[in-house]
Amino acid sequence: MSGFWLCAALVSMHTDPLDTLGGDVTGGMNVYIRELARALPRQGVHVDVFTRAADADAPPAEDIAPGARLIRIPAGPKKPLDKFSQAVFTEEFAAGIREFAEAQGGRYDLFATHYWLSALAGERLAKAWSVPMAHRFHTIAAQKNRALPTGDGREPDARVLAETGIAKKSDALFASSPAEAELLSEKLGAPDSRIHVIPCGVDPERFAPLPRDAARAALGLREDDHVLLNVGRIEPIKGLDRLVCALALMKSKRPDLRLLVIHVGGAIRGSAQASNGSGLSPEDFSSPAQREEVRRIMKLAAEAGVADNFRFMGARPQSELSSFYSAADVLAISSRYESFGLVALEAAACALPSVGFDVGGLSGSVETGGSGFLVPDGDLEGFAEAALQVLGDPDLRARLGWRARERAKTFAWSAIASKEINVWKKLLERQTGDQRKFRRPACAGASA
Ligand code: UDP
After folding, report:
1. Fold of 6-201+412-438
2. Segments making up each domain of the chain, as ranges
3. Looking at ligand 1, which atom is closest to the CA of residue 339?
4. Would you give the DSSP letter of residue 354?
5. How far apart are CA 255 and CA 252, in angstroms?
6. pTM
7. Are 109 and 6 in contact (CB under 8 A)?
8. Neighbours of 218 (CB within 10 A)
9. Which ligand 1 atom is nearest residue 29's CA?
10. How far is residue 287's CA from residue 328's CA, in Å, rounded to a whole number?
11. Which fold has domain 212-409?
12. What integer pLDDT is reported at residue 105 of this predicted model?
């Protein structure tokens, strides 16, 4: 295991960290696992990331970076399955990881699991091999249910129950914000001593400000367009209905402004493409759930008289997002719940201020008064006022943008990886001599 002092298994059962971002289930968690897997080997940790094989054409293993591999474990049918249909395959998935490790003649020093399904698989192996398991929930069902407007899309009790068990059993829990840490302790009963607040990261080189005029021209925007950008998956929890309402309020207050909301995200059908002048229609999106949500938002926008001010662009690769962040005037985060809100940090790295509701862990990625403004949850009037203030004051926008970029630089992925490693080290130190003595890491034969 040349140059590596630790061999970690990162488990991401229900979503492939190398999948295209912005689809139904691909977002911040995929980015977190992918970036962590890239950063860890530079600090001496060999990483195998395990995901469920959901595509018969995808290779069984792939390099993410030197010292980090992605392994696709067959468990259930090789096709996309929703998270609840996957729950019955956690045992098969765990058995597949074990078989893979044994074929390499070893095991792992530690399991780092992401999302509740992965923990259900990881805890079996961690127990069998007497190694620690550190878990990050990314989203918490009880909190999501509280935030959702109606009964639609509620997370079932089985997940709520499973998460309570995971919170109590994991050797360490990573929360992305103090708000999440409080939730883990108070609502899920996790022991405080096991909770560690470690935020998400951002790559300040991939996300950096581009010249505004060129970015606007490339997207076909006029100099006098006042652009509110929203980036993310398309689902009710992202609160696009609230953004439509806030936009209508803004328009009634300032009918003289050319207001435009640009939404980036949502997997689209192969042939569909948004042109610069007009957005996509519901039929352009590839999943029924996205089509339904886009239809609902468009209907709402038409009723509120802002249909022409709202444009869906579909998912774009991260390499294109700096253009959007640099062309916009404000990132408008309408979410009802965000465990962290990676897009706010990416926008910040591009010197774009954010306006959002103070929900979940968003206060970790948006520093109110520093890199943007957070208003109380559901305060549409406050949201509209804050957004108009940023749109209408170029000096304020520049000041917030500068501060946002400076702050974002402190969230480099290498620093996030070091923080996780420090917690892992403490877990490993607690192990008894025998537990450490008989181990041959599964990555011993892996090429780095
Ligand atoms: N993203 C992307 N292309 C898109 C939409 C989103 O690459 O069209 C990425 C975005 O850069 C960010 C992630 O998806 O890194 C979304 O993370 P966030 O934490 O904001 O939301 P989540 O999806 O986890 O709810």
Report:
1. Rossmann fold (3.40.50)
2. 6-201+412-438, 212-409
3. 19
4. E
5. 6
6. 0.93
7. yes
8. 15
9. 24
10. 28
11. Rossmann fold (3.40.50)
12. 84
Ligand 1 pocket, 314 CB below 6 A? no
Instruction: Quote the CA–CA distance of 332 and 390 in Å, as a whole number.
Output: 11
Packing angle of the helix pair 342-349, 394-408 (nearest 10 deg): 110
Q: Looking at residue 149, what DSSP letter applies? A: S
**Ligand 1: nearest atom to the Cα of 318:** 7
Q: Is 31 in the pocket of ligand 1 (CB under 6 A)?
A: yes
Structure tokens at 361: 């862990």
* Residue to probe by mutation, ligand 1, list 202, 206, 311, 321, most atoms within 8 Å of CB: 321
Provide the residue count of the chain.
448
Q: How far is CA 227 from CA 71, 308, 324, 425, in A?
A: 41, 13, 10, 46
Q: Is the CB of 232 under 6 A from ligand 1?
A: yes
* Mean pLDDT, residues 325-337: 97
In this structure, the strands spanning 6-11 and 45-52 are: parallel
pLDDT tens string 11-59: 999 999 999 888 778 899 999 999 999 999 999 999 999 999 999 999 9
Ligand 1 atom 6 nearest Cα: 22
Class of residue 447 by CB neighbours under 10 A (exposed 0-12, middle 13-18, buried 19+): exposed
Nearest residue (by CA) to ligand 1, atom 8, is 315
- Give the count of alpha carbons within 13 A of 135, CB side only: 28
For Cα atoms 370, 327, 357, give the angle at the middle one, nearest 5 degrees.
40
- The pLDDT assigned to 147 comes to 84
Q: Does 212-409 match 6-201+412-438 at the fold level?
A: yes
Q: Ligand 1 centroid vs 348 CA: distance in angstroms?
A: 14
Contact 401, 367 (CB under 8 A): no
Q: Please tell me the distance from the alpha carbon of residue 302 to that of residue 332, in angstroms, as a whole number.
A: 20
CB-ligand 1 contact for 296 (6 Å cutoff): no
Span from the CA of 227 to the centroid of ligand 1 (angstroms): 19
For residue 277, what pLDDT is reported? 64
